[in-house]
Structure of Maleylpyruvate isomerase family mycothiol-dependent enzyme:
Amino acid sequence: MMSGGHHIALAQAYDGIIRAVADLDDSDLQRPTRCHGWLVADLLLHVVGDAQRALVALASPVDGPPDTDDVSYWRGAGSGDDEGAARHAWWVRRSAAAFHRPTGIVRLWTDTAPAAVRAAGNADPDRCVTTQGHVLRVRDLLATLTTEAVVHHLDLVVDLPDAPRPGAAALRVAVATMDGLLSDDAVRPAGWDDEEYLLKATGRVPLTDHDRMELGEVAGWFPLLG
């Protein structure tokens, strides 16, 4: 969970994406990403949706207790609904194509992301809110948003080698999420840095034979989330 300064990691995660896309032209925004079928502009619009969802959730307080936290939120996420995922992917592509120019999505992101961060900074971290059918504390909501933003930042820059990488505070939250999903009885291979861990834990990069040897039976748990 996020501790004091609960919104700082989210601010860093969203600012990292702003810095990665701010100077891209229409051509760069049509480069591929790690997300199947999505260009940079498409994926950025998907992330805009997360920031918009954050604004709605932070304005939707509910009575507790929470039914999930920042780790359990991800268990089962994205599994068993390939048809729904495909529909969402297609909706995002069509919605992104409706913009007059891809840079319009950048402007939408640079307006929306800071607003979500300001709302997060003003929220009581222990208050309960609702999103996507779950009740969770604000601090846990922000951790889920941070994790998704960091992973998608890595997705965005796969064909943008000069783009900045996610910041350290945001990376720590995403790594802590993967550690929680991995369980207390397993550890990642010592040779993995944080980015490699996130890419392999989310199935973006396949495990090597050496990885499988080091992980042992834990390799069967990968990807930890999709």
The longest strand covers residues 128-131. The beta strands are 128-131, 134-137. The longest helix spans residues 103-122.
